Amino acid sequence: MTAAPGGATASTGPRRARRGPRVGFVLIAVLAGLLAAYDLSEAVTNLVLVPQDVRYQNNAFFDEVGVGSLAASPPWAALWANVLLPPVAYIVALLVARRRTLGRAALVFATGLAAVAAASLSLTAYVLSI
Amino acid sequence: MTDPRPSGSAGRHDHPDATSSDETDLELDPYDADADADADADDALSWGDESDASHVEGPAAASRDDEIDPDAPQVMSSASLVGHGVLGGVALLSSVGWIVSRDQFLIAFGGGLVEHVQTTLWLTGVFLALVAPLLWFVATILLVPAQRSGRRLLVMAVGAVLLAPWPLVIGGGA
Is B126 in contact with A117 (Cβ distance < 8 A)? Predict the structure, then answer.
């Protein structure tokens, strides 16, 4: 299982190295990608689990009894925004960090991950507050 | 600059040392003053000396102008400076707000190895969230050139809205 990502990285390295010493950039990008993937997995977990919350499970019963106004729907917009946030931020960071020095590329990826983390916490707080 | 004058003087007077030296004295003095001024980075803009009637205050003012001039390409309008200050303060306060409300995010997932990795990743994210507004501000300063102060302020404003400590405002926890 670990051989496949290692091979992918090794095949990506020389392809970049042909255009210049960009191995450091690839390493930073892969590390940032892994952290972004963790953020994505958290968001997907929320997207799956939050709608299973008990307060969203009684809508059919509320409709049946005739108090449909009590029906609550999961905050789909916030949940999907939280899912879309990590990949979008990673792609934007990749585009911004391209053709920059290593330190600035690292700063771009760190800022992107930090923005995703803060915005995810905000979205989670919103989801939990309603 | 010095090439035409030696060739011209050599063309007119090769041997008479007195006239050539007189001419060079007459013509070289301003140029020598310029050369000294060029050598002195502080006096780069002082093209006259005390004998020039229009040049009374002289070197001090010129050197002050010269100290400002290297910054001239990066000088921004006062409105832009105020915007930088306000948005930098907002970023600082946002980070303070995140740090104040950090306790509600400090979660540990459990005792196993996977849970330890999960906890480490989660706390890394929390730490990044705490410093996110300041990181955004610094990255904007470093990555957007100062000439494009409008774009800079726009990016900073987006960060101020996106990275505000909303959990503190909303009151919900993670």
Answer: yes
Among the ranges given (A66-80, B58-72, B90-104), the one the predictor scored with the smallest mean pLDDT: B58-72
> What is the pLDDT averaged over residues A52-65?
81
Report yes or no: B109 at the A interface, CB cutoff 8 Å.
Answer: no
pLDDT category at A96 given cuts 50, 70, 90 is very high
Interface touch A113/B128, C-beta < 8 Å: yes
Average pLDDT, whole number, for chain A?
83
Write the CB contacts of B109 (distance below 8 Å, at least 6 apart in sequence): B115, B116, B118, B119, B122
Q: Which of A107, A119, A121 sits opposite B174 (nearest CB)?
A: A121
Contact B63, B79 (CB under 8 A): no
Copy the structure tokens of residue A95: 């585009």
Please tell me which of the candidates B136, B171, B172 has its beta carbon nearest to residue A111: B136
Taking phi first (over 0 means left), then psi (-120 to 50 degrees means alpha), and beta for anything else, what does residue B40 get? beta
Distance, in Å, from the CA atom of A27 to the CA atom of A109, rounded to the nearest integer, reads: 12
Say what the ipTM of the complex is. 0.77
For residue B107, CA distances in Å to A114, A125, B96, B156 come to: 18, 14, 20, 30
Q: How far apart are CA A24 and CA A12, in angstroms?
A: 12
